[in-house]
Amino acid sequence: MPPGKINRLVLLTPPGRSALATLRVEGPQAVALVDQFFLPVGGRPLSDRAIGSIYFGHWSRSGGEEVVLSQHSQDQVEIHCHGGTISVNLLRQSLLAAGCEEIPWQQWIASQHSDPITSDALIALAEAKSQRTALFLLAQAEGALRGAIENIILLLRQRDLPAACDALDALLIHAPLGKHLICGWRVVLAGRPNVGKSSLINALVGYQRAIVYDKPGTTRDVLMAQTALEGWPIELIDTAGLHSSRDSLELAAMEATEASLEKADLALLVFDAFLPWSTEDDALTERWPTALVVHNKCDLEAAAGFRPEGVQSSAQLTGGVAELCEQIIARLIGKVPEDAAAIPFTDEQTRALTAARCALARNEVSLALDRLSGPPF
Question: Is residue 258 within 8 Å of 191, Cβ to Cβ?
């Protein structure tokens, strides 16, 4: 039950068109508020019905919006209606006019759980981009991270500082993974014009997302495609070719390419295996030394001479694409933790854990305890 005498309204399903939408009314007058608008089949008002049952009827008038109601208690009612925005807004406006106060679903989730890690994980879970990342977030909602934090606190109170440090390090090693459980990873493909970046993205995604045309400089805008590699959400970013030019549009496009590379979680430098290695190619690998090198067009006869190590691929024939996917995941993920592993998944959690670890490095046990006992834990 919400605090005080406030009657709250929360939309529990995402906004937009869908098959069904669910609104929840909570508060001391929840049943009375809904009864003002609910016309049940059979005529008996909601207040005369048994708690826990489900009822069908119409909203506001006979023949109006069809709704299904479920009364969870004397102060909690859920309303299920058509998922279109018009239907949802009709119900919302009725209840707001009757005195309900609407709150975001995230605030409602937080109010249902005393553990902030649980509520944060459930909120994050709604934004998970793949089943694999959702499973890791679900583990945190079910107590994996809470259990790890409580274990570290116990170790600190027992003055077992080496074990506490090891446990903190084990959590922090998963922080880079946890940061991407919601937003995924950004992989930027860059290289000289016409090396096959767009075709390679098409091969990785599995359908033709980028425009492919046999003319240097075709891709002038940054193009993006969402996919999942081995269950990990990846945003593939296609960029303009890097080359010498005086054209203002091409120069602006190349600036956008370099900006994308700066923000990338992983850069793929794509080269044409049919062409000899050049000083321009050397300059690219020297400027982006941590990039994964990809030698594309290996279905053609490779040019003689030196080439640095890299993944051999053929976007047209999809040769080498499986190996490229493996290399991308190896670079981004590294060793995959167990499904039930404790993983910090917000920046606030990582900062608090880092602060606690730094405090222990200075033998400040009380400060470490404070960092693990307060927000966001």
Answer: no
